[in-house]
Amino acid sequence: MYQILYKTRRYPLRDIPPTDTEPITQCEASMRVTGIKQDIIDLLLKMGEESHPREFAALLVEENGIICEVNLIPGTISGNTNATLLMDMIPLGSQYAGSAHSHPNGIIRPSHADISFFGRTGRCHLIIGYPYTKECFRCFTSNGTEQQIEVVS
Ligand SMILES: [Zn+2]
Question: Are 13 and 32 in contact (CB under 8 A)?
Fold first, then answer.
């Protein structure tokens, strides 16, 4: 699953340094997330509302840097298990852009447990919080830093 690609840069011909390659993982190359579709935000907020007071957890799929699909992790809505524990069972190396889950307590901030699994499931992590209105979501990087995400129609 770990494929190395080489990113080449354009230099003036005489200037090509001998070490002009920088290994990047394919995962990184294909997963720059810059935006999310409005439909997806609406869907996630609705999922949060419907599963309340339980958490739900889902995985996000991107296309051309825009999150355009949600894959629900089975069992998260019907079960009582903490969403984070379910996310923890996702195999390493899964090709997802990121994750989304809800915080029924309304605190839209990743917990320590959240941050520990963020790194396994892509780079863009949405937390949806009670009361699940339009502004009740935030996006975080894998280390838990809040990041801006553009909502596109
Ligand atoms: Zn959480």
Answer: no
Could you say which of 49, 55, 135, 150 is catalytic?
55
* Alpha helix (H) residue ranges in 62-123: 83-87, 112-118
Determine contact, residues 36/125, Cβ cutoff 8 Å: no
Q: Which residues share a beta bridge with 58?
A: 72, 100
Q: Is 55 a catalytic residue?
A: yes
**What pLDDT, on the 0 to 100 scale, is given for residue 83?**
60
Q: Is residue 124 part of a domain?
A: yes
Q: What is the pLDDT of residues 22-40, one digit of tens each?
A: 444 444 444 578 999 999 9
Q: With respect to residue 58, please indicate whether it lies within any of the assigned structural domains.
A: yes
The pLDDT assigned to 96 comes to: 85
Does residue 44 sit in helix, strand or coil? Answer: helix
Q: For residue 44, is it within any domain?
A: yes
> How many A from CA of 135 to the centre of ligand 1?
17
Domain count, the chain: 1
Confidence band for 102, pLDDT divided at 50, 70 and 90? very high
Three-state DSSP class for 19?
A: coil
